[in-house]
User: Fold these one by one.
Assistant:
Number 1:
Amino acid sequence: MAKLTFYGGIREIGGNKILLEDDKGKLFLDFGYPYSKYRTFYEEYLKPRPGAGLLDLLVMGLLPPIEGIYRADLGTENLWQQFRRAEHYRRLESLDGVLLSHAHLDHSGHISFLREDIPVYATATTAFIAKAVQDSGIASFDQQVCYFTPRVEECLKGWKQGAYVASSSGDRQRSFCVANKLALSEEAEGFWGRATRQKKLASQPLDDINTCSFNLRCFPVDHSIPGACAWGIETSSGWVVYSGDLRLHGRQGKLTESMIKQAAQLHPRALILEGTNVDKAANVSEHEVYENGFKAINGARGLVIADFPPRDVNRLLTFLQIARDTKRKLTILPRDAYLLKTMRLLESEIPDLAAEDSLVIYQETTAAKSPASWLRNIYQEYSGKIVLAKDVRSNQGDFILCFSFWDLNELPSIQPVAGSLYVFSSSEPHNEEQEMDFRRLHAWLERFQLRAFGLPIEKNGEWEIPEEERGLHASGHACGPDLLRVAREIRPQILIPVHSEQPEFYVDNLSSSGIDIILPAEDGTVEI
Ligand SMILES: [Zn+2]
């Protein structure tokens, strides 16, 4: 009989870590970064110590105490002695892989800690986004999904105790198995094997998902990041379907529709289904975002700033269309240019930056003297498309600048004219820290006399978007009625909600459907 243990994603949005065990082997379904658990103990200036290896994560309950699955360079034999009596301690002699649903860190981040020989199964797009994000950012030691810098235990001179410090031997890549390996071009394979930060990369060739000891099905679905998929796993108890994160109302909604049909044909024993937006009664579609965004921006005077979630390529394309239709140029940051370039290696319908007149790249004003190699390459390859703060300042009506809160420190160089527009196309604050950032964002807008559109305003402790400015953000997650449709049409024998703060929603609404709803406890095991 197959068993599922839920080490994360129970009564929390994100941090999914679900262990599936069967006589065929053992798999994790996602191995995500648990943001809300981190926030209980840590904040921006108080973080787990990279030099302590696995210790902080295990002691603080951010990683499950499972001996045998983590990187050897982050822990010594002695490390495990103190956890062998811990409540959920166990030793796993083998792990056949991680089925990764998509490249959002709350699903992928903690792959960072797993042994590099444990394969990660994903779509090629997810693997490539994971690499592009890591190449173009500074991934902290607990977010190195695609490759990592091995650490060595070093005793500093005169100190008795050592620390795990980054070795200078170069980065090591994990082994990834992708669902659509055969269609990869030589150029795409080249990207995978290339080091783009300072260190050289010991690259691992991409393999195919058929190498897995389980019979797997990979179903592409629509979500707010490209490459998302649901998984079907054949176990001795029947098929298990894991949804990852999904929606039906996005640009690629048809993918999710076809997943529902194919998953239903498997007559699954169990469906593990997300429930982020169970409390939402309806969705805003990406097309509505276009229409509302166009209305707000068309005729606007001065500069337009568009704030939308990072790596939401669909939203970027929506604003690209708005830019074309309002005769402005969409001005993206180099990391977004790098992501688009990477995605085009796999999907030819992604616009070619070089040929797209309405797309330009913003170069930060205080750029480093010797930029990282990926950045230097972007500046060189698209040298005709680079826009500086002074260019924006002198022709403000020509641009839609893709900035988020974190990029606003460029504004003193740009000096937007009073009455310029800030279009907010993202989600409202979900916790106190984000609320603080929203207050700061409002202060920035006031300082530069920018007009906000679609931005939540604080009223009696609640954050709300003014009535007439709504409909500028299409969530990455299906609303309650859509989720019930997913469950009813796939018709599993058992439904297990994850990635939700209100899993009871499924109990309340599916009690007479003939589907058994199981609400597992955190770290709890369910036999199916
Ligand atoms: Zn997600």
Number 2:
Amino acid sequence: MSALPDVSELQLLFALLNNEHFGGEIPAHRIAYNGRFSNLAGRITYKPPLIELSPKHFEQHPEALRDTLLHEMIHAWLFARGENPGHTAGFKKKMREVGLRSIYHDLGSAAPKRESTKRFILRCERCTMELLRKRRPPALVSCGRCSRRNYDPRFQLRVYEVVGLREVEAETRAAHRIGR
Ligand SMILES: [Zn+2]
Ligand SMILES: [Zn+2]
């Protein structure tokens, strides 16, 4: 069984890729594994900047980890430059420059089932509960699981804004199609 790189190794890889392909322009991001992902390979949020990777997915596909990190970094780079951080023409141009062949691994033109229609994540850092929202919440909110009080500042939910998601399921479906 292959051991996943730990978070400090991921930070080192991030720094190396940042220097190699982005002139060091990408601001620091927290990088974390999120064991709750069931059909996502990776996810990037900004405010606060965070890249999350699926440990389940990369235990099975360790070779894909670097490319997924690089993919999320292109989103981060575009965002840092004030450009649209989505899968734009600029995204695809940069993708080719850094040597990534397709957005979804070897999927060719297969589209993801959903490219983050919900833009905000509210997360309790204590119990890791997550809520998805289309709009930024209007006021401070706290975790209803951790405290029943109307608003409890001890369990305030952090708000993350989603830039991009990487679907695992789409990849699997397309792989089946190609294999037949
Ligand atoms: Zn909670
Ligand atoms: Zn993406």
